[in-house]
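Q: Predict the bound structure with coenzyme A.
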Amino acid sequence: MPVPDEGATEFFLSPDDRRHGILGLVRELELDELTVLRGRGLLLRTWLPEDLPDVLAACQDPEIARWTTVPSPYLSEHAEVFLAGSALRWVQGLASFAVIEQATGELLGSIGFVGLPEDGVVEVGYWISPGARGRGAATAATRVICDWAFDELHFHRVEWQAYVGNEGSRRVAQRCGFTFEGTLRERGFQRGEFRNVWVAGLLASDPRPDLPDLLPRSHQSARE
Ligand SMILES: CC(C)(COP(=O)(O)OP(=O)(O)OC[C@H]1O[C@@H](n2cnc3c(N)ncnc32)[C@H](O)[C@@H]1OP(=O)(O)O)[C@@H](O)C(=O)NCCC(=O)NCCS
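A: Predicted complex:
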């Protein structure tokens, strides 16, 4: 089971770290790539090579291109690099989960920590495949990862950021109990341009609202 590192306020630079360059300069947060989180109809697990076709298909979506920094156009080699980089992200403290429907094993999306976690604060980021939207998948996955971040990793604050105008993502954060805190001017850099960024936060001491589990596909709400 992953445990928070009690010496997390110190930098570490062992000879082994020096060989790995940047890894020696990040704050230590020991995460276990084999962590599996279950809840709300979902299973969150690390990425596997066989996820490539699903990742490649999902990332053709113009909404993912519009609201995230995934490469666009998204090619097979991008998915290969993403999947091959999963283990390194975990070593860096960037939890990186595939979001799986527990009942069917279907890959619904991606969720994880973005930006290096520090001083008890971590940012969460996600996307859901177009065909899996409207079932509460993003809301359920965000809740599962927040519960883990607070209750097991003992983070103090989980942060959410999105480019201004991403109403869907903002609604997900709101449903999970995040407090909207404002707009950071040109805080984001996407495809050669600075973009304004919305920010919201959920504290360990904040109430976490009751939420439904992932809805079955038959209850999927149409949204265009
Ligand atoms: C935003 C996104 C993650 C939502 O995923 P999802 O699984 O469909 O979201 P949920 O089903 O949990 O929806 C939660 C709420 O948001 C609302 N919502 C979802 N997409 C919406 C949209 N485009 N516009 C307005 N509201 C939206 C839902 O209606 C629901 O509200 P309700 O509880 O009042 O019914 C998904 O559309 C996506 O991946 N978008 C592209 C990538 C992206 O924006 N990532 C986030 C970057 S910060």
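A: The two ends are 40 Å apart (CA to CA).
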